[in-house]
Structures are given as C-alpha cells and as structure tokens.
C-alpha cells in the first residue's frame, strides 16, 4: 500500500480521528442544520457479459455475477456487495459509538449471510420477493468490556447504521429512463 492508502490500525489515532470528526460535525450541524443533509452520487456502466464498472468519487470497482447467473465471475455480485456494504457500515458505526459511549473495542469482525430465492429474481413465482428474505450478522468483538456493554453498543448500532436502515425500512425509490 502507498502511504496515502495506508489504513489506520492504531487505537489512539483512531480514537482521536473519531473524536475530531464527531466534534467537527457537531459544530458544523450546530451552525447550519442543513449541512447534515448529504447526497451521495455513484455511477455505473455495463461491461462484459453482465458486469458493471462503478465509479464512486475517486474510486472505481467492478460488480459481476457468477457464470450461473450469466456473469464472467470477475468480481463479487451485487448482493455480495450489499452484504459487504452493511458489514462495512456496521464497522464504522460500531467504532463511532464505541468512542461516544466509552466502550473499548480492540478488534471487530463481522460475518454476514443473506438468504435469496432466485424464483423472485427470475419471475418464476410472483409471491417471492426478489431480494433477501433474511440477513444474519455475526459480530465478533474483542475487548475488556462486559457482554452487557457490547450488547448496549449493538443496540445503538442497530438503531443508527444507515445501511442496515436501508434493509430494515422502506426507502423511497424512483427511476428515470433517459434514451440517449
């Protein structure tokens, strides 16, 4: 990794960054409540059989499907990225609220499983939704706190994680078709 892309694993530096970010956002929102409203923009273009090249700011990544779903299997599938999105958002929110609640988290890892019945995707059975019917997370935390403190943290994360909220609650969704 280059110096610019080195991940921070030092607990003291992570704590300082989380504290600084929380204080900065608190001041920003306190002086202008509308600054709390963010819009994220991501673009994608079809490549290969059914793959998509995604651009998100200065980052690019590919999403594909396995051969059984007509893909070239060059990257993770959309539903795998969705599970990855909830895992990564959870890690952020666990770290953020551990800092706020004074709960020490030395290490965290999360495993996700999602059940999907492809009869919904392929229109074989209209009574089956095309998305996940169930998602299960296993959060592994190491640190000196009691089980009860980590469960308190988990309840806070469950209530505050934006990506978990996407899975747990209906979100308005609209599409515009533009012939170019």
From TrEMBL:
Annotated transmembrane regions? none
Please state what the protein is called: Osmotically inducible protein OsmC
Q: Which domain of life is it from?
A: Bacteria
